[in-house]
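Input record (one chain):
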Amino acid sequence: MNMSRIWAIIKREYIVRVRTKAFIIGTIAAPIVFIAMIVIPILLTGVEGDQVRRIAIIDLSGDMYAQLREALDGDKQGQRYIPEQTPVEKRDKRIINRTKPPDNGGYVLEQIPVKENNLDVVKEQLISKIINKQLDAYIIIGKHILEGEKPEYHSKHVSNFMELRLIEDTLTKIVVEKRLRKEGLDPENIDKITSRVDLKVIKLSGKGEEKEDRGETFFFSYILMLMLYTTVLLYGVAIMRSVIEDKSSRIVEVLASSVRPFDLMLGKLIGVGAVGLTQYLVWSILGIIVLLYGASIAMFFNPQAVMSTMPVIPVTHFIYFVIYFLLGYFLYSTMYIIVGSMVDNEQDAQNLQAPLIVFLVIPMLIAPMVLINPDSKISVILSLIPFFTPIVMFLRITVLTPSFWQIILSLVLSIVTILLMTWIAARVYKVGMLMYGKKISFPELIKWIKS
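The corresponding structure, as predicted from the sequence alone:
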């Protein structure tokens, strides 16, 4: 093993990749997208819609419209109700001012007097208004709504689920209240009796410290798991492409005359791995900034945003993240080197790398089970299988840190597997790097390993 030559290969692989536009854009874009996913929804909570929704109400029950109008008042539901002017209201200057559509949107409700015998005629008129954009929607409240008859919402635009949910919940509340009063019960007392119980979740650390958890553990576990999966896959493919490029450009023939195949392969492994660590370092710095100042920045742009304290991620989780990234990277990269050594182009490589992708996808599929039962027998067994260890064991650590002996055992088994795969990859690479124009069968691959 010639360390000076290995170091030269490491520098070449590292510098070539960190200077590419793909690396620069990926390193900067990934955290920006991640931050945007968190910050933009917070900022949008302070942005109110600027569209006035004009809705006609056909109340066949004769007893729902007034309460529906009151319930959609902005002070109660976060939406602003704009009462329709009547001849009497037009005489009152104060009410005339109140009926002007607000600048920041709301609802204009209009009650349509109708009898059952002319309902179809009225519906045709309302449909015409909707088509001509004089009306946004109309609602039919049936005569027997208290007995379970379903109200109807008619509109050209029916994908505004927030509005549909608001109207549905409002009508439900009104109907339930009327049913209770009909039975001689007080709705306010019933609300108090049946009020929802909110469970406060407290997470215990290994030292017994308590901290409220509002889903941060689940969220960050998934985010870190996705990062681990993505980067292991991307850098494994990157080193496979590097091998294929060297073969197709015949550079490897020149290198083979001065560098041992094992030294060349090891230099590629370490060089590309260093690129991944560099990317993680940049992301970690940006992540720390978001954790420290994210809440303050969000409150600056939107003072009304409700922000809980930012979650505190233990430093040990970052350490384990790097450790299991390295284990996953070296394990899968050696297998990708084998694939790259067996083919001459990426098209053939795509077919051969399918089994490797399956090994990475399986942990993603079982992730929900591991999150729910991190200490179950199946979770423990899967986390100790080296091909699944990087993702499954790390996920267990972030959710509920397992016994230290399990972590050590997973590291030992992974390292032994990596050494074995490196030995196999070195033998395949030694023969395959100079092999051109021939598709390698599995028996031939076994011969390369035994040679």
